[in-house]
Amino acid sequence: MYKVHILPLDVVIDAAEGSSIMEAANATGLYWPTTCGGQGECTTCAGIILSGGQSLSEMGRSERRSLTENRGAAALGKPLRLCCQARVYGDVEVQKPGVR
Predict the structure, then answer these.
(1) Can you give the pTM of this predicted structure?
(2) How many domains does the chain have?
(3) Which site among 5, 72, 81, 95 is 20 to 30 Å from 88 CA-CA?
(4) Is residue 100 part of a domain?
(5) Quick one: pLDDT at residue 31?
(6) What's the CATH code of the domain at 22?
(7) Whole-number Å distance between alpha carbons of 32 and 26
(8) Each residue of 2-28: b (16+ CB within 10 Å) or e?
(9) Residue 79: domain span
(10) Going by C-beta distance under 8 Å and a sequence separation of 6 or more, which residues neighbour residue 6?
């Protein structure tokens, strides 16, 4: 199990290896904002990775396309990830308002 620190809620949750950030949050009873249900289409679940980005799965083509189409090409230059797609392989700190 890895640790995912979620801000600004300031909660640390356990994440099984290979689970998405959003799956891990939902498994602990947290609500993670999404409108597409975790299909990687809406970018509502996007969070800023404050640390541990190297401990996440590599961004795939569909995640890259979704971020570009919905947030603009500049989004790819930021530590922004779709939390329904980013899989955990180490400790991570993510900022996502609206998690409760």
Answers:
(1) 0.93
(2) 1
(3) 72
(4) no
(5) 96
(6) 3.10.20.30
(7) 7
(8) bebbbeebeeebebeeebbbbbbbbee
(9) 2-95
(10) 12, 13, 25, 30, 94, 95, 96, 99
Output the six-digit token pair for 93.
């700190």
Whole-angstrom CA distances from 91 to 5, 31, 37, 63, 70 are: 8, 20, 24, 21, 28
First and final C-alpha spacing in the chain: 21
Q: Is 62 helix (H, G, I), strand (E, B) or coil?
A: helix
Identify the weakest region by mean pLDDT among 1-5, 66-70, 72-76, 85-89.
72-76
C-alpha dist (Å) from residue 58 to 9, 10, 28, 63, 84: 26, 25, 24, 10, 13
| Residue 47 covered by a domain | yes
